[in-house]
Design brief:
Layout: E1 3-7, H1 12-23, E2 27-32, H2 40-46, E3 56-60, H3 66-75, E4 80-83, H4 90-95, H5 97-118, E5 122-128, H6 152-171, E6 175-180, E7 183-184, H7 193-203, E8 206-210, E9 216-217, E10 220-221, H8 222-235, E11 239-244, E12 250-251, H9 252-263, E13 268-272, H10 287-293, H11 301-314, H12 317-320
Parallel strand pairs: 1-2, 1-4, 2-3, 4-5, 5-6, 6-11, 7-10, 8-13
Antiparallel strand pairs: 9-12
Length: 329
């Protein structure tokens, strides 16, 4: 089986992808800088099941360091790249846009240049539904030609897509940009809504809802997203931008209600003003993914929340400790 380089491989999506690739026989090189955006020990825990595999190698490094990346490419025969490493978070990007530009754009260009030099057969870029901004067109289609990102994070992801196309055009690198729609499930980042709300409801702490609870997201379960990534890696398309979502919007109020039902506890909801950079609703048109990737998401929000809460409860005191995880802002 081919060797795949996964950047951000110790993170939420990345660690699930690494496990899937190892399970089917790939050799995997994982590059991650264990950034303290959330506790690095969480990421290290994510990879525990992978470390025993002789086909897995963990490289601690930053995608901004081209020299370090060049050594990784020079010492391994890499066939495909799945680039998931990024500075995450819509709201934090507003206070530090330069950092998001350096990591998400500069790091992507470094990887594209090395992929060009090394003749990489396929490059899969982890983009985001946030690039659509507040266009009002739901479901969002990849053919949308008037993207208006409303946060530096979203702008950095759109810039990454543009660089991917430029390198494809100039150097004929096969590239697939995957726009993820609110991925959730076991190992989700603790700052994201489902994990944050679950922890606060469980601990009896106030749950902040920005807006009136009518905002909606297309929540996509982690196993469905990994299916899409693996398919994109295997198909080796020319150049494509493809949505990966569940194609169903869930209101925030319903999300909190499902968490309450599965925890058996009542949320102490506090309504707050909408936040800058947030969009009111997301929803994916997945017809292109179905056609090109054979993508068929099958975990709906009710089943997905039930599975997430089972995982959360299985973590014991770890999930109940606010000292271990950052408090939501």
């Amino acid at each position: 089986m081919e060797t795949v380089l996964v950047t951000g491989g110790a993170g939420f999506i990345g660690s699930h992808l690494v496990e899937r690739l190892l399970a089917r026989g790939n050799r995997v090189i994982c590059v991650d800088n264990f950034d303290p955006f959330y506790p690095p020990e969480i990421k290290r825990d994510n990879l525990q099941s992978c470390l025993a595999s002789e086909r897995f190698e963990l490289v601690q490094g930053d995608i901004r360091n081209e020299g370090h990346l060049a050594k990784v490419f020079a010492t391994h025969e890499i066939h495909g790249v799945v680039h998931l490493a990024a500075r995450a978070g819509v709201r934090p990007s507003i206070s530090n846009p330069a950092l998001y530009q350096h990591v998400n754009v500069g790091g992507t260009v470094n990887l594209l240049e090395l992929s060009r030099d090394c003749g990489i057969k396929n490059f899969v870029f982890g983009s985001s539904s946030s690039v659509y901004g507040a266009s009002g067109r739901i479901p969002s289609r990849e053919s949308e030609d008037s993207l208006r990102p409303v946060s530096p994070y979203a702008a950095s992801k759109q810039a990454g897509e543009l660089f991917c196309y430029t390198f494809h055009h100039l150097y004929h690198i096969p590239v697939t940009c995957l726009r993820f729609f609110t991925v959730y499930g076991p190992r989700q980042r603790p700052d994201m809504a489902i994990y944050k709300f679950t922890r606060l409801v469980d601990l009896g702490e106030p749950v902040p809802l920005y807006g009136d609870g009518s905002s909606g997201r297309d929540y996509t379960y982690i196993s469905d997203v990994v299916d899409g990534i693996v398919s994109a890696l295997d198909r080796k398309l020319d150049f494509e931008i493809i949505n990966l979502g569940y194609s169903e919007t869930t209101e925030l109020r319903l999300l909190v209600s499902l968490i309450e039902q599965n925890l058996g506890k009542k949320a102490d909801v506090r309504y707050l003003a909408p936040q800058p950079g947030d969009v009111p609703v997301t929803g994916a048109d997945i017809s292109k993914a179905q056609r090109l990737l054979g993508y068929r998401p099958n975990i709906g929000i009710r089943e997905g929340i039930e599975a997430f809460i089972r995982w959360y409860k299985g973590q014991g005191n770890l999930c109940g400790s606010l000292d271990h995880y950052p408090r939501p802002q």
